[in-house]
Each structure stands twice: as C-alpha cells, then as structure tokens.
Fold:
Amino acid sequence: MYRGREGQWAFYLHRITGVAILLYLLVHVGELTAAMFGAKYSNAILEFFHQPLFQLGLLGVIGAVLYHALNGLRILIMDFTSWGTRMQQKLWYGVLVLFALLYIPTMIKILPEIFGGGGH
Structure:
C-alpha cells in the first residue's frame, strides 16, 4: 500500500507539513514573546517578518495546514472505516483535488497583497 506509491507520498507530505507547522509555531511563539520586552522589540520583529519572503512563507504555512488537515481526515477515514484502506489511493487523490480547489483561490487572493498589487 505504501512503498513508492501514493500512500508513501502522502506519508512524507504529512510529516513534512507537520514539521513545517511546528517550526512556524515556534517562530510565532518567539515573536509573541518579544512583546513582553516592549513595543520597540515587538515592532522591529513584526517589521522584519512583514517582508515579502516571510509573507510567502505564511502562504506556505497556509498550504501546509490545509494539506495536513485534509490528509489527517483521510487517515481517520482509513483507520475508522472498513473500506478506507481499499480506497486510500482514491482518497489521496481526493485530498489533492480538495487542496487545489481551496489553495489556488487563496493564492490568487493573497499573492497580489504580498507584492503590493492588492488594495488594503
């Protein structure tokens, strides 16, 4: 079911997105901790993270959370139904389709904002 097939790719992506979400949360907690040292430090960090590269990173985090959540639902279906493991390949393709349907409009909305084309 897994070796070199869809299940293995789903597994790898699930682990990678989980680590990415963890790293984001660690950075976010550090950013919030800076607020305890005063507005000067907090504002400097927020200004640093407002650069386009970090904004693209946030778009990546949105994608990671979305994929991780959808694939997590696929894993639940596989674990708690009698038919889930038989359908795991189709379920993963369903995850990819749902991901694309939800993430592409998000990118279309957010990318212009990052590069100054969107009106706040």
